[in-house]
Write a structure and sequence with these properties.
This protein has two domains: about 200 residues, NAD(P)-binding Rossmann-like Domain (Rossmann fold); about 250 residues, Rossmann fold (3-Layer(aba) Sandwich), CATH 3.40.50.720. By secondary structure, the protein is an alpha/beta fold. The strands form three sheets. Strands 3-2-1-4-5-6 form a six-stranded parallel sheet, with helices on both faces. A six-stranded parallel sheet has the order 11-10-9-12-13-14. It starts with 5 loop residues before the first strand and ends with a strand. Helix 13 links the parallel strand 9 and strand 10. About 45% of the residues lie in helices and about 15% in strands. The chain contains 18 helices and 14 strands. The structure holds nicotinamide-adenine-dinucleotide (NAD) and uridine-5'-diphosphate-xylopyranose (UDX). The site of nicotinamide-adenine-dinucleotide has 27 residues, from helix 5. Pfam families: UDPG_MGDP_dh, UDPG_MGDP_dh_C, UDPG_MGDP_dh_N.
């Protein structure tokens, strides 16, 4: 088996950073260098003060503290890191295309191709190249072609090793994965990567497949997870119409061991950088093979999710006497889920956008998201001028300030701390009737109704 002494990871984001930190932690004999063209991000990864790491993940600081400077390094010198490595992970972003063919659906592979060309140009000896990014099925073929045709006499083996961590639980997921998936053609290369994970993952949880199964499995896993959320969200609307309670239905259904209880929490809609992007990509791939029924089937997961976000915003407007113009609506949470500072595709962005169209005054509080990020998210939609976003939206760093004088509260992220607030005091400071729209089914209906709130929760 090829002995791996040095690993390089291109891309120091939500996946590259935590994944490589854990690989380094568990393999002290291997030097792991994470590189990125984003200098600010690398500087943040090198921060003395571990609370300033670029990503907030429980337990990440301890892993970085253990490995950084020992066998874990963060750097901007991509060429040097490529040249030195035996194994190179590509963990760059693969966003949905915003231009040209496949716009709005296909994955944009320009960053992947740039990495492949740079590896080919710089490499002087044989390398194992590992796809860590989520990629369309058969991308390994493209990678191999670029590597083989643009390098000079170097052998490359391409492996697929998609990442299944979820944000907010990244370190726990990496320490104790349900499975590690490795797709490849070359046994020696596969075994080299298996050896790295075998430092802490039991052998029966390291699954090896052919390249295409591995690439496709990642898209399919996300599609299945998102489909469960859209399924329960579809049921939530039916519950509201019929008097059933979506939590009760989810429990009854999930107790069937064939279905299982996880990922059946009704919500204002799923967010995050992966679900929508990966399903759109799956839809695009299916259409490109003329599999229109397959494409339509998966596209419905996204359509349902968009509907859920719109429905929630409209419920707020309709309940507040059909106008929110000039009314203060406090947003509890902006991140796409609890325990992360990531806001990509967060439902909060789209709900806010809808309410701002109606000239609502939105005041946002999230324990981990900055004002700059909130404005960046809204500006990126391009719905209105940046000045209008700043006129209509205020971001505060105290939840009570957000709710003081508000006509309504909307719960967008399920941060545990929201449950512990002094709801009697909050009600005092609000306009009456004091509305709460709980997009996460987080708060206690009985408690809030006893205090006199008008409480609305998804699926009840
Ligand atoms: P990210 O945007 O946080 O990080 C990607 C990093 O790559 C950025 O810092 C960027 O500057 C860097 N980069 C881009 N091109 C580069 C180049 N040519 N050279 C050096 N650096 C370059 O993205 P992420 O969330 O870490 O996701 C990365 C991949 O992992 C995506 O394909 C995503 O679908 C997949 N994934 C993400 C998650 C998640 O929870 N975020 C989970 C599983 C898989
Ligand atoms: C997801 C996948 O879970 C992970 O395996 C993959 O590697 C990356 O994409 P992530 O997006 O980080 O992870 O978080 P996840 O926990 O899956 O939640 C995604 C969204 O679905 C969040 O907005 C969450 O609030 C929502 N969700 C999840 C629900 O609304 N209900 C649920 O029951 C579960």
């Amino acid at each position: 088996m090829k002995q791996i002494k040095k690993i390089t990871c291109i891309g120091a984001g939500y996946v590259g950073g935590p994944t490589m930190s854990v690989i380094a932690q568990k393999n002290p004999h291997i030097q792991v260098t994470v590189v990125d063209i984003n200098q600010a991000r690398i500087a943040a990864w090198n921060e003395e003060d571990l609370s300033k790491l670029p990503i907030y993940e429980k337990g990440l600081d301890a892993v970085v503290a253990e490995a950084r400077g020992r066998n874990l390094f963060f750097d901007t010198d991509v060429d040097k890191a490529i040249e030195e490595a035996d194994m190179i992970f590509i963990s760059v972003n693969t966003p949905t295309k915003t231009y040209g063919k496949g716009k709005g659906q296909a994955a944009d592979l320009k960053f992947i191709e740039l990495c492949a060309r740079q590896i080919a140009e710089v490499a002087k000896d044989d390398k194992i190249v590992v796809e860590k990014s989520t990629l369309p099925v058969r991308t390994a073929e493209t990678l191999k072609s670029i590597l083989d045709n643009t390098s000079s006499g170097v052998n490359f083996h391409v492996l697929s090793n998609p990442e299944f961590l979820a944000e907010g639980t990244a370190i726990a997921d990496l320490h104790n994965p349900d499975r590690v998936l490795i797709g490849g053609e070359n046994t020696e290369a596969i075994n080299a990567l298996v050896g790295i994970y075998a430092s802490w993952v039991p052998n029966e949880r390291i699954l090896t497949t052919n390249l295409w199964s591995s690439e496709l499995s990642k898209l399919v896993a996300n599609a299945f997870l998102a489909q469960r959320v859209s399924s329960i969200n579809a049921v939530s609307e039916l519950c509201e119409a019929t008097g059933a309670n979506v939590d009760e239905v989810a429990k009854a259904v999930g107790m069937d061991s064939r279905i299982g209880p996880k990922f059946l929490k009704a919500s204002v809609g799923f967010g995050g950088s992966c679900f929508q992007k990966d399903i759109l990509n799956l839809v695009y791939i299916a259409r490109s093979y003329n599999l229109h029924a397959v494409a339509d089937y998966w596209e419905q997961v996204i359509i349902m999710n968009d509907h859920q976000k719109t429905r929630f915003a409209e419920k707020i407007i309709q309940t507040m006497y059909n106008t929110v113009n000039g009314k203060q609506i406090a947003f509890l949470g902006w991140a796409f889920k609890k325990d992360t500072n990531d806001t990509r595709e967060s439902a909060a962005i789209y709900v806010a956008d809808h309410l701002l169209d109606e000239e609502a005054q939105v005041v946002v509080y999230d324990p981990k998201v900055s004002a700059a990020q909130v404005y960046k998210d809204l500006d990126a939609l391009g719905t209105r001028a940046p000045e209008a976003n700043r006129r209509l939206v205020k971001v505060v760093d105290n939840a009570y300030e957000a709710m003081d004088g508000a006509h309504a509260i909307a719960v967008l992220t399920e941060w545990e701390a929201f449950k512990t607030y002094d709801w009697a005091q909050i009600k005092e400071g609000m306009k009456k009737p004091a509305f709460v729209f709980d997009g996460r089914k987080l708060l206690d209906r009985k408690q809030l109704e006893e205090l006199g709130f008008k409480y609305y929760a998804i699926g009840e």
